[in-house]
Design a protein that fits this description.
One of its GO terms (cellular component) is plasma membrane. By secondary structure, this protein is mainly alpha-helical. The protein has one domain (about 5-265). Helices cover about 75% and strands about 0% of the residues. It has helices at about 5-25, 30-40, 50-75, 80-95, 95-105, 105-125, 140-155, 160-170, 175-200, 215-240, 245-265; strands spanning about 210, 215. Helix 4 (about 80-95) packs across helix 7. The two termini are about 35 Å apart.
Amino acid sequence: MSIEWIIAYLMLGAVVGFMAGLLGIGGGGIMVPILTTLFAAQGIGQEHLVHMALGTSMASIVITAFSSVRAHHRYQAVLWPVVRKITPAILIGTLSATWLAAILPAKALAIFFSCFMGYVALQMILNIKPKPSRQLPGTLGISLAGLSIGGISALVAIGGGSLTVAFLTWCNVRIQNAIGTSAAVGMPIALAGTVGYMINGWHASNTPDYSVGYVYLPAVVLISIVSYFTAPIGARLAHKLPVALLKKIFAGLLVLLSLKMLQTIFSG
């Protein structure tokens, strides 16, 4: 691998790690389009281009999320009981998304959820607080939310981290706790996704050297080396920024993700 590719992957890791720590997102929304471009420029075949970008992104998120979780845990910002309740449902929702796609109209789903995210973003931008009486639901309610987050994430290509933060803040969870908890939820999702892409791409032909299935190991190593150190920087900043500013930053991300989701669905 030439020096320009090494630098590109290192720079990508720096950005992804910082954003993961700051906003509790895995960084897939940033990594996948950039990795697709980089892989295409490196000559990876068109038939595996997107699969390689998705698999490599998932594998990179594992280390990034681990570093982010450690940093947020030091600030006691991870609601571990919520993580334990919502993670199994999110995993089931993600794995069931293929079946859901056959019975749910994706365009209607995209419109509905983009409207919901727009509503949450507007609340954050205007600093409109949810009803004081609104709290996190019980195990059943959290599980249903997890199923929705996992299914929608897989169906419309929006990261589960952003939806988890939106759900938790909607339930009056402090934004820093929502970000820390979202980072913890993202790690098992990334692990499951990585294993899936490795297995599904195990017998794929014409994948690059040093790949395991659809995971390109050199990119994973280079991205992870830097993201491991930049994620705590983002997490530290998340606990220093004023809540109102942090909400506005996240609201801007929600708007961008909503637009990306609609563009993805309606351009297909």
